[in-house]
Amino acid sequence: MPGLTIGDTIPNLEAESTIGRIKLHDYIGNSWAIVFSHPGDFTPVCTTELGKMAEYSKVFKEKGVKLLGLSCDDVSSHLEWIKDIEAYSAGCKVDYPIMADPKREIIKQLNMVDPEEKDSSGNNLPSRALHIVGPDKKVVLSFLYPATTGRNMDEVVRVLESLQKAKKHKIATPANWKPGEDVVISPGVSQEEAKKMFPQGYKTKDLPSKKEYLRFTNV
To answer: Which of 91, 106, 131, 182 could pair with 101 as two cysteines, CB 3.0-4.6 Å apart?
Structure first.
């Protein structure tokens, strides 16, 4: 995927939003952030997605994460659309800002342009993109979905917890990992270091190669 990707610093963009003018780096502060785009206001998949974001908002706050939505519609459209989102997701409030990008400048800088989907005027629409950004303002994970496929918020929570654990401990999460399950110790950690870093212990998988690299622990 060309443009902004993993390891890049997210641009310090400034734009109007549903809570006023936002400067991206100031908004993120020392927190983690999830910046996500959607093709358009008053559309079915986007309405369900932003409703789910509102439903999961408390979970993200508990993990020290700020949410920020983005589309090419203006703020007045966003504010009207929020009423529909909250009606669809009964009991859930859209308590995160949605940025406006009517000139389609921000989606280009954030690598969120759908190469195929266009509006009635022939302009490119935002893709269903999502960046997870660390406190250092660097992109640590990106999802890119077509307009026809809604995002899975359980997967967003899963990868977020994986990223946060990996940053705190020298571990990685194996295939199909779920929060609470065992993780693997990074290959760069020696056996002596592992004993000190993981006093709770770890299990090494016996493999035909006899290389002791597959080490499981719980953190």
So the answer is: 106
Q: What is the set of active-site residues? A: 46
Query: Which residues of the chain form beta strands (DSSP E)?
Result: 14-17, 20-23, 32-37, 65-71, 98-100, 113-118, 124-126, 128-133, 139-145, 171-172, 183-185, 203-204, 215-217
Task: Sort strands 14-17 and 113-118 into parallel, antiparallel or unpaired.
Answer: unpaired
pLDDT in tens, 56-100: 999 999 999 999 999 889 999 999 999 999 999 999 999 999 999
Q: Enter the tokens of residue 103.
A: 């000139």
User: What span, in angstroms and rounded, lies between the C-alpha atoms of 173 and 182?
Assistant: 8
State pTM to two decimals.
Answer: 0.92
Residue 88, CB half-sphere, CA atoms under 13 Å: how many? Answer: 20
139-145 vs 65-71, strand pairing mode = unpaired
> What would the DSSP string read from start to end of 113-140?
EEEEEE-TTSPEEEPEEEEEE-TTSBEE
Strand partners, 68: 35
Nearest-10 Cα torsion for 189, 191, 197, 201: 130
DSSP readout, 192-210? HHHHHH-TT--EEPP-TT-
